[in-house]
Amino acid sequence: MSVAQAAEAEPSAAALFNEHCAVCHGEGRLGGTGPALIPETLGRMYGPKLEKVIAEGRPATQMAGFSDQLTAEQIAAISRYVETPLAEVPRWSVEMANESLELNPDYKPAKAPVFTADPMNITLVVETGDHHVSVLDGDTFEVLDRFATPFAVHGGPKFSPDGHYVFIMSRDGWVQKYDIWSLQVVGQVRAGLNSRNIAMSHDGRWLAVANYLPRTLTILSTEDLSVVTVRDVVARDGTPSRVSAVYQAPQRESFVLALKDAPEIWEIATSPNAGPFHDGFVHSHEQSMEEQLGAEEGLFARRRILIDEPLDDFFFSPDYRNLIGANRDGDKGVVVNLDVGRAISELPLPGMPHLGSGISWERNGSRVMATPHLKEGVLSVIDMKDWSLVRQIKTMGPGFFLRSHENSPYVWADVFFGPNKDKMHVIDKQSLEIVKTLDPAPGKTVAHVEFTKDGSYALVSIWEDDGAVIVYDAKTLEEVKRLPMRKPSGKYNVWNKITFDDGTSH
Ligand code: DHE
């Protein structure tokens, strides 16, 4: 069908949508009880895949099949309609966000954990197959609770610094608060319409939500999920920008934002005396007056760092003084020193590095970091003193995630893409040699690793709807247990996350 024909067909598609879909997915396609149906949220769900869901529904969800009510042409028309970008970026103000707050009426806070398991060794498993999270006892691997999340959770859940609460975000902007001690959902609020990820402030008081739609950063109070501020993200030249991601920089007492549509990095203070905005942190006065212009003061003050081109997908040095970001072409890494507020080095990283999955460790007396590449079967290992490339480790295909633990001699690297997606490499941190390649579920995607608190076990996902989490002895590399799970994706151990353990990407 031509564009003109599609446009002509649109009114009837819109009418069909309003008649059959809007009751759950919202009149403006922005979501309701069902997820938002806009290209930004649908991602790779388009064409025949989307038509199949409309026709047949989704098992174990509220999504019913419509093949008995709609013809194949009508289903195709609805599919094309929801694939069309919205004509106008909708508003999502502080008031609108606050109105969306839903609290669990049955929630009862607990003064201490209601279970005997070590609360610091709890591991959460995000099960994207049926939009749930399983709460695992990290010693016995018993499932203590399993709760429903909003649709399509993405990115790492963020724990409060004491490990008592966790916050989980969905691609259509809902942020859910869960009380680990009482094993209960506290509530949820819609912080954006299409969101990327969340970050926790150093003191656990604020949660930042990076949004694509609208082009804003939302800041929530972690205490009651109220929306404190929605900040428009507009570059110095007036261009509104999507926020690729927001990161927590606890030592700096700030959030760091990657702007997708502008050559700027933003730093937002999470305390009135935040590092970047007082003398102690800005060691050098290399940042010009012009660059400093626009720096603000107080809580949530913003500082702009000007760079040559937009960068995203950041890896941070453990002291949060430097970050490496990837350029749009995915062929180089740019090192930005956050203290002086400018790029200080570049390194060649062809094949789309996935720096957000990077991890670092000590090797031969100096610190190295490693990153997988989404388009090349290699891991790049970089010396963090002079930002030189130490080694490219050849893998059986491009990978997505890396993980280690301070007590483990190994890095675990998946091979997410291609015919070897069922393999998992285990690499010696000192020799940088692959010591073993695991093949626990031939033909299935095997990905993402998390360790238990002391690093003695490694948990690996079989990333399929009838998948599992495999527990490995992290020393012998032998399988200990297999826990059936619905498309388990990321796994997050309370202790490793709140202590920013060496082997975990932040
Ligand atoms: Fe992710 C983390 C961006 C596609 C699963 N992903 C992140 C983070 C960012 C990011 C910025 C860090 C956020 C954080 O944890 O605070 N992801 C992107 C993309 O730009 C990309 C390539 C395209 C997109 O659709 O947005 C992308 N991501 C995916 C997937 O297709 C994955 C495999 C399946 C899914 O659930 O969508 C996926 N991303 C994940 C997971 C994490 C993540 C499981 C958290 C990893 C961790 O261990 O912390």
UniProtKB/TrEMBL annotation:
<dbReference type="InterPro" id="IPR011048">
    <property type="entry name" value="Haem_d1_sf"/>
</dbReference>
<dbReference type="Pfam" id="PF02239">
    <property type="entry name" value="Cytochrom_D1"/>
</dbReference>
<protein>
    <submittedName>
        <fullName>Cytochrome C oxidase Cbb3</fullName>
    </submittedName>
</protein>
<keyword id="KW-0349">Heme</keyword>
<dbReference type="InterPro" id="IPR009056">
    <property type="entry name" value="Cyt_c-like_dom"/>
</dbReference>
<dbReference type="InterPro" id="IPR051200">
    <property type="entry name" value="Host-pathogen_enzymatic-act"/>
</dbReference>
<feature type="domain" description="Cytochrome c">
    <location>
        <begin position="8"/>
        <end position="86"/>
    </location>
</feature>
<keyword id="KW-0408">Iron</keyword>
<dbReference type="InterPro" id="IPR003143">
    <property type="entry name" value="Cyt_cd1_C_sf"/>
</dbReference>
<dbReference type="InterPro" id="IPR036909">
    <property type="entry name" value="Cyt_c-like_dom_sf"/>
</dbReference>
<keyword id="KW-0479">Metal-binding</keyword>
<dbReference type="Pfam" id="PF13442">
    <property type="entry name" value="Cytochrome_CBB3"/>
</dbReference>
